[in-house]
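Hey, quick one: can you model this chain's 3D structure?
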Amino acid sequence: MLNLSIQELSGNNVEGVLALRNPWPSIARSVFGDHQRYLDTYMRPYPGVFYTGDGAARDEHGYIWIKGRVDGERSVALAFTSVPTSHPHHRCHQCLRPSPINGGN
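Sure thing. Here's the predicted structure for all 105 residues.
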């Protein structure tokens, strides 16, 4: 998490914007037909990191909570749901589902 001065926030009980230093295989690499928009939206606001557009908080236990969009884009919120499983090493999976709070069903 970063503050508006592009400084990493350490410790617990902090709020800032969610930015990612390390990519993963399915990270967006461009916007179809408008690569400049991709760079301006996700790579330039916070140089050196991928800016998600989400605000986040780290609670007293070190868990990160995504609090919602901070860039003016509207998106459907997702909520975690526990789903029972028959796998012997897992009691349940955490699944994302649309949240009715922000337009999901």
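One thing worth noting: The domain at 1-71 is CATH 2.30.38.10 (Luciferase; domain 3).
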